[in-house]
Prior knowledge:
Protein name: PD-(D/E)XK nuclease superfamily protein
Number of domains: 2
InterPro entries: PDDEXK_4
Structural class: alpha+beta
Helix content: 40-55%
Distance between the termini: 66 Å
Amino acid sequence: MEHMNKSTCKQHLDDSIELKLSSLLFSAELEELEDSLNGFNIFEAIGAVNSELRHSNFLGFILDPSQNHGLMSKCLSNFLYHFFNEFDVNNAPSLIDVGCYDYSDFSVEREWRNIDILIVSERYRFVLAIENKIWSGEHSDQLTRYQKIIEEQYPSYKRYYALLTPSGLPPENNEDWVAISYEDISEILHKTLKKVKSTSSNSVVFAIEQYLQMIERHILEDTDISKLCKKIYKQHKQALDLIFEHRPDKASETYDLLSKYLEKNQETLNIDLAHSSKSYVRFSPKEWGEFDIQKSGTGEWASTERTLLFEFVNRVDSIILVLIIGPNDGEQRNIIFEHACDNKQIFKNVRSKKLANKWHRIYNISISKKSKSVNHDEDEEAFNNQIIKNIDEFFAGDYKKIKESIVRVLSDNS
């Protein structure tokens, strides 16, 4: 009888799993997503999605006025106008100057002294370096080394620096580099495409459209495809979790580890979870939710109006934990930034030069470096246990200090 009961329970469980998987398989939303993803994409075909080299090659090509794409200077001028208009750049040229530049004088170099993209004008004594990071992090003092090279090579030039990442995450160790995102790249390319679509060759237009399609599918967070994916996941979470569980992907495994830790300890830690992805796992203390700063964000970050969020950044080579001040037009944003700068013993590695317009990191620690040598189950288990241990230590130490420190300053200024 006991054997029959176990068999019956197992059969019911199998039937339930099969029902969930078939519900996902035949859902209208999945069909809509497949329609959105249907069709050949050249960048996906050549494996460019996660390749910084190929992204940089394409961007360097279309930015260069001397290349045979037929865009002339339209893409470069749109990029520079966006860069100096959208970001608070020290010693920036006027937008009128940017609009009146003779762009035939500009050159665009790839991998000059290992710098991903270098834009130079001898006539205007102008140089702008772009370092491109898709999923990897900065290597030691990489940005500072590049900056020193440029200062030595171009001592009398106006020098500008941009760090390009999927979400526009500020650099860890050098505040002179302006953080720009692939959302900015998308906006610039759409604007360029609108200007040139009727006059440029079909092949160039097709290439830009294909590139935009690729980054909207795989890199940008708040696209229609991204929203549809979230809807499908919400409706078919158990089926998708089962599929993910059997998918051999290290980044997904790390995401699962981080998100499950937060979900399991959500009540004990008294935290709110925010929209997360494979690369970014976000949360904030519930106590902060009582203050206006967590209710008045612009909504352009992590699908929330919260301004202060902790974020596990799940990179190919490391996991870091940061606290970020996101977009918000209120004065409390400046108050928090100044408070963090005055309390660097609590807000470790705060970027204190100047408050960035949208995202500013006020706390930054390493949770783990990912070893390429982790091949065996026992090594992976030890690696995951070390991650959990480091997170436990964070919540037992720095987290409490940061949480209480921000509650005090917000209470004093509410």
